[in-house]
Structure formats: C-alpha cells, structure tokens
Amino acid sequence: MTRSAAPAQEEGYVPSPPPEQMDGDHLSYEKTRRALRDLRRVNRWLWGYPSVLRSLLPRLNSGQRVLDVGTGSGDVAAAVLQAAAQRGVDLSVIGVDFKLRHLTVGRSWHPGQLRVVASADALPFATGAVDHAFSSLFFHHFGSDSNKAIVGEMQRVASQGVVVVDLRRSFLLRLTIGPLLRLLGAGSVARNDGHLSVRCAWSLAQVRSCQLQGRGQLRRRFPFRFALTLPGAEPPQQTLP
Ligand SMILES: C[S@@+](CC[C@H](N)C(=O)[O-])C[C@H]1O[C@@H](n2cnc3c(N)ncnc32)[C@H](O)[C@@H]1O
Predict the structure, then answer these.
(1) Closest Cα to atom 2 of ligand 1
(2) Whole-model pTM?
(3) CATH H-level, domain 21-231: superfamily
(4) In the predicted model, is pLDDT for residue 205 greater than 50?
(5) Which residue's alpha carbon is nearest to atom 26 within ligand 1?
C-alpha cells in the first residue's frame, strides 16, 4: 500500500488565520467601543500613525480622495487628514468596513469622514474612483488568497497607488505584546486580538512571496511594522526626459 503524499503547498501560500473577536458578531456595543478605544491607544502609543504617514503623506495632493480599507473607527484616517491639513493638503477620506457598528462608533469620534459598509474583497467603487487606498492593521486578518483579492481590489479602485501597513512578524513583539497591552490598560477583547494579531503577523519574506500585482516596495517601519506600496489602476504618467 502506498501512502499518499500531503498536497504540496504553493510557494507564497499563507493560510487564513482564525477570526479575531472584533470581527465576530457577538460583541455588545460597549465592548466594541472599548475595543476600538484600545486600538486607538495602540495606534497612538505604539507608532501606528507614523508608519502610515511616512508612506502615504508624500503622495498626497489637495483635492484627492483617499480610501481607508478596514477603517474600524476611522482613527488612522483621522490622523492622515490632520497631518495632511497641517501641510495645507485638503483631502476627502472614505472609510470602508464590513462592521456597521465600528463605523457608527467612529462617526461619534471623527465626524467628517465618509463611511461605507462593504467587504474589502468587493469594494463598491468604480475603477480609479479614488486616488489612493491604504490599510492599517488589516492585512494580517487574511491568508494569501484573500489578501491577493483584497489588495487587487484596492489597486483597481485607486488610480495612484496603494499603501498597506501592518505588523511584521517578530519574536520580540511576541514577548512584549502582553506587557505593552497591560500598560495601555487594554480590555479583554483588545488583549485577545492583540495576541492573535502578533501570532498571525506576516514575515517580510511571506509578503514578498505572495505575488501581489505590480512592482511594489516593501519597507520595515519602526518598530514592528512593514509598509508595502503598490501601483494603482493607472500607471504613473511618463515624463519626457
Ligand atoms: C484591527 S481593525 C483595524 C482598524 C484600523 N484600520 C486601525 O488601524 O486602527 C480591523 C478592521 O477591519 C475590519 N474588517 C475585517 N474584515 C473585513 C473585511 N473583509 N472587509 C472590510 N472590513 C473588514 C474589522 O471590522 C475591523 O474594523
């Protein structure tokens, strides 16, 4: 009798991680609000905003539309709007999330952003409808097949380009995430999801081998993140020498 070999795993394949508590349907409004508040603290104190701003800000011009995919409360989008305004760049931001409740909590904190309930793998926008699309702490929620579809959608709707920022796999982060979350006073949902996120974070090698469309640039961002920039639906205009 011959033993059948286990199916060979395609290069660059990353399985889907288990769902985070925040992505489920059973959290009360109060627990959701608390978890989003904790996430805002994580972004504020653990260098969440600078990782996005460094890649996104230099690309932005007044009058542009920016899409934040998996926006949550719209906390990072608010930081982008504020930093751009300080440089005299006037933007409109649209946040997409599949949880209406996250958008509702966010609206009370950051009015003035457009918010759309939709799934990231089927964005309800025409090709090139926005100038830039970005995501923060979102990529690690998915395996490679879903991420190819989602990043492909972001590239389709964004004419200029896409920025994906997320946690980078790190042993040091695995060791320190518990004390860091305790220090920030995080509640049980944020602690559970924080640990899971760190366990499911991709290594740079995994991001590189995922075969996302187009020539991208992958950079480390201090201390535990990466930033991936990719072209959008429209190739940049060729300039004559
Ligand atoms: C960890 S939170 C990140 C929120 C925000 N981007 C930040 O950095 O603070 C991930 C968000 O992605 C949303 N989400 C998860 N799967 C999604 C999907 N398939 N389509 C749209 N949103 C999704 C969740 O509801 C949640 O609000």
Answers:
(1) 72
(2) 0.93
(3) Vaccinia Virus protein VP39 (3.40.50.150)
(4) yes
(5) 72
- Distance, CA of 148 to CA of 78 (rounded, Å): 27
Q: Is the CB of 66 under 6 A from ligand 1?
A: no
Q: At 180, phi and psi to the nearest 5?
A: -65, -45
Closest ligand 1 atom to 138 CA: 10
**Bridge partners, residue 231, by sequence:** 161
pLDDT for the residue numbered 3 = 45
Q: Does residue 35 line the site of ligand 1, with CB under 6 A?
A: no
Reading the block at residue 76, the tokens are 């990072």
For residues 131 and 67, is the Cβ–Cβ distance under 8 A? no
| Distance, CA of 190 to chain centre | 16
CA neighbor of 148 nearest in space, from 213, 100, 83? 213
Evaluate: CB of 177 within 6 angstroms of ligand 1: no
pLDDT in tens, 27-36: 999 999 999 9
Q: State the greatest distance between any 2 C-alpha atoms of the chain, in Å, as a whole number.
A: 73
User: In what helix (H) or strand (E) does residue 163 lie, and over which residues does it extend?
Assistant: strand 158-167
Q: Where are the domains of the chain?
A: 21-231
